[in-house]
Design a protein that fits this description.
One of its GO terms (biological process) is maltodextrin transmembrane transport. By secondary structure, this protein is of the alpha+beta class. The chain folds into 2 domains: 47-159 and 321-390, 3-Layer(aba) Sandwich (D-Maltodextrin-Binding Protein, domain 2), CATH 3.40.190; 162-319 and 392-434, D-Maltodextrin-Binding Protein, domain 2 (3-Layer(aba) Sandwich), CATH 3.40.190.10. It is 49% helix and 14% strand. It has helices at residues 2-17, 19-43, 57-70, 85-97, 113-118, 131-134, 139-143, 167-172, 181-194, 210-222, 240-254, 267-276, 287-292, 334-344, 347-357, 370-375, 379-385, 398-413, 419-434, and strands spanning 46-53, 74-81, 105-109, 146-147, 150-151, 154-160, 162-166, 200-203, 279-284, 303-306, 320-327. The mean pLDDT is 93. Bound molecules: alpha-D-glucopyranose (GLC).
Length: 436
């Protein structure tokens, strides 16, 4: 005890007499306080928030956990959003309009890009990624990720509309898969009449939402028509090709090939009905294949995919869809956001999400991956269809243009107006939107 007292006394004496000791101890105290303030702040991980369409959440959750384990300084706050792309777009849009979006990353449908980029809501990514890296992606996906020459999105999955059919039912009826719209109607009717267990011939998306605009784009192109020419703003919705395209869809309902309920269907409603086993054909994106072939699926092993049908003398077209990551211009954490994007777009993540979620990769090399090819025999076919896809117009006013088309398609599909009236009104409103 005495020794301690003696020691403290000596220290105090030093402190009083030596200026150097006094200065040094003040510096030490200051440094210690600074450390105590800074350390806890630094050990808090950066949180990156983003919305994710509900069906994709389970596929991404384990991958996010893996990313967080390897990057303890970043936490990914995935917020579950609705399924329909236009609803998720609205959520993102309203938060950007408020000035400072709470989201750091934006998982973007290909059709949002022009609007989000034109509004200044995204950081350009050109400086982050080399030309050589970009060349490893499907060219159409990269093209669709640019606005006025700048890159705003890195794709993690592509998408394209396809025609699904029941191989067993066509074979029993001695039919080949259809090539034209007329073939499809005929084959559907033949199988429906021959087989009591087959209630429906064709299911598709007809609800008032983005998926119906996407589906219509490919029927329209299959008839040789167009929606909006993005170069000239010319509108093709009231031309005979467009009216023929809508009449084809209406005839499927009028002839009892499609249920009147398609007017309320999104992708999943069509998929569930087709999967229950009583339908011959379905229009859908490739994600459905994985679900259709799961162990408990009644149609497992009896489904094939082909390019969409077309009119005689025209070629078939699948609508280009797909999703990619952008960085919100308002984020405080662009470096961490870029790190997350590199992970989400990596070959590793794309392969996993393809294997578990059935999504189409956007990296070219994965179309030669033996595990993926074993599971998805249609990959080479998809690559072919992606050579000449049907594009929804890449214009900044896309959301409004699509909203107009969705409203009038829905009015015709649910029998409230004729195809001519619907498309003439849609064309008129679209022209006034584009100032044409
Ligand atoms: C898919 C496509 C997307 C499209 C949407 C419509 O998610 O990838 O591009 O807009 O379906 O429902």
């Amino acid at each position: 005890m005495e020794i301690v007292q003696d020691y403290s006394f000596k220290l105090l004496k030093y402190w009083r007499t030596s200026l150097l000791v006094r200065v040094l101890s003040l510096i030490a105290a200051f440094a210690l306080t600074a450390l105590l303030i800074v350390l806890p702040a630094r050990s808090q991980p950066v949180v990156l928030s983003f919305l994710m369409n509900a069906p994709e959440v389970p596929t991404l959750r384990p991958l996010i956990a893996e990313f967080e384990r390897n990057n303890p300084n970043i936490r990914l706050n995935m917020i579950e959003a609705p399924n329909a792309t236009n609803l998720v777009e609205d959520l993102n849009t309203s938060s950007f309009l408020l000035g400072s979006s709470p989201y750091d990353l934006v998982n973007m449908d290909v059709v949002w890009l022009a609007k989000f980029a034109a509004a200044g809501w995204l950081r350009p990514l050109d400086d982050q990624v080399s030309q050589a890296e970009l060349a490893t992606f499907l060219p159409g996906d990269i093209e669709a990720s640019r606005y006025q020459g700048k890159l705003y999105r890195l794709p993690w999955r592509t998408d394209v509309g396809m025609l699904y059919y029941r191989t067993d039912l066509l074979q029993q009826a001695g039919l080949q898969p259809p090539e034209t719209f007329a073939n499809l109607l005929q084959a559907a009717k033949t199988v429906q009449q021959a087989n009591d267990a087959v209630q429906w011939g064709y299911v598709w998306q007809g609800r008032q939402y983005e998926g119906t605009a996407a589906m219509f784009t490919e029927v329209l192109q299959g008839y040789g028509g167009f929606w909006v020419n993005p170069e000239t703003n010319e509108v093709g919705l009231d031309r005979p090709e467009a009216i023929n395209a809508l009449n084809f869809l209406l005839s499927t309902i009028q002839q009892g090939i499609s249920p009147a309920g398609v007017s309320t269907y999104q992708e999943e409603e069509a998929r569930r009905l087709f999967q229950s086993g009583n339908t011959v054909f379905m229009r859908n994106w490739p994600y459905a294949w994985e679900l259709l072939n799961q162990a408990e699926s009644p149609v497992r092993g009896n489904v094939s995919i082909k390019p969409m049908v077309h009119a005689p003398n025209q070629t078939s077209a699948g609508c280009l869809g797909g999703w990619g990551w952008g960085i919100a211009s308002t984020t405080q954490h662009p470096e961490e956001a870029w790190k997350a994007i590199q992970f989400f777009t990596s070959a590793y993540v794309q392969k996993q999400t393809s294997l578990t979620g059935g999504y189409l990769p956007s990296l070219r090399s994965l179309y030669n991956d033996p595990d993926l090819l074993k599971k998805y025999e249609y990959f080479p076919l998809v690559l072919e269809v992606l050579q000449t896809p049907a594009l929804r117009p890449q214009i900044a006013q896309y959301a409004q243009a699509s909203d107009i088309l969705q409203r009038y398609l829905s009015a015709a599909i649910s029998g409230r107006t004729s195809s001519e009236e619907a498309l003439q009104a849609a064309a008129r409103e679209t022209r006034s939107l584009l100032g044409a």
